[in-house]
Structures are given as structure tokens and as C-alpha cells.
Design a protein that fits this description.
Layout (H helix, E strand, L loop, with lengths): L7 H6 L2 H27 L15 E2 L7 E2 L1 H25 L13 H24 L2
Antiparallel strand pairs: 1-2
């Protein structure tokens, strides 16, 4: 929207921009999680169809020769946080009347909290997919 908002009540009570951002993060993470699951699955000892770079894996304390696909597993785990942040914001906003309410101060945490996680997961996904053999 460009210019001055014609409805001042809507201007202060609208959080669609935050919900849109968190929805985009959740969908992005869903796709990264699916890709990460494929990496974990196909690099397992049962299949060995692909091999992840050593820099993105760690050895097991019991079996040092085993490669654990840590980055891919962490990407899968962070997906739940993206879903939780979206659910957090939508639940916060569902019961509020129009106009600004004190409850709306809680809208910043889910939005600001997930930015670094999303960027880290995107970098991890690029590193994993760019380095497999």
C-alpha cells in the first residue's frame, strides 16, 4: 500500500505483513525440510546413493567411521520452529478486536526470532545440496 492509510483503525491493528512473512518462512522451511530428509535418507548406510561433504557431518562417539548428516538433521528440526512462530502469531491475533491492543506487542518476537534461523537453514541447504556426490 502506498501513501496514507484511509482507515486508521485498520492501520494500527493489521498484522498481515507479519503473518505473510511467517507463512513464507514456514513454506520455505517445509521445502528445505523435505530436501534435508531426502539427504538423510539417501546418504544412510542402507542406501548410500549420495555422500554429503565431511564438513557438514560429524562422526559418532561410539562409531567414529559413521557420518551423521548434522546440518540436514538440524534443518529438519528447525522447521517445527517456523510452524510454531506462524501459529503463535495467528493465535495471538485471532481474538483481538479492531484497533491497537497491548497484546499486539507480542507480535514482534515470532517475526524477529526466526530471521537468523531461516538464513542459517538456507545456507545449510545450499551447502548440503551443492556438496553431495
Amino acid at each position: 500500500m502506498d501513501g496514507v492509510c484511509e482507515n486508521s483503525v485498520d492501520a494500527v491493528s493489521d498484522r498481515d505483513f507479519a503473518a505473510d512473512f511467517l507463512y513464507a518462512c514456514a513454506v520455505t522451511m517445509m521445502h528445505l525440510s523435505r530436501l534435508a530428509e531426502e539427504m538423510v535418507y539417501w546418504s544412510s548406510s542402507e542406501f548410500r546413493f549420495l555422500s554429503l561433504p565431511e564438513t557438514l557431518c560429524t562422526g559418532s562417539s561410539i562409531m567414529p567411521q559413521k557420518k551423521n548428516p548434522d546440518v540436514a538433521e538440524l534443518i529438519r528440526g528447525k522447521t517445527g520452529r517456523a510452524y510454531g512462530n506462524l501459529s503463535n502469531l495467528l493465535t495471538l491475533m485471532k481474538g483481538l478486536p479492531l484497533a491497537y491492543n497491548r497484546d499486539m506487542q507480542e507480535d514482534k518476537e515470532p517475526v524477529l526470532r526466526f530471521g537468523p534461523h531461516r538464513e542459517g537453514c538456507l545456507v545449510g541447504g545450499i551447502c548440503c545440496s551443492g556438496g553431495w556426490r
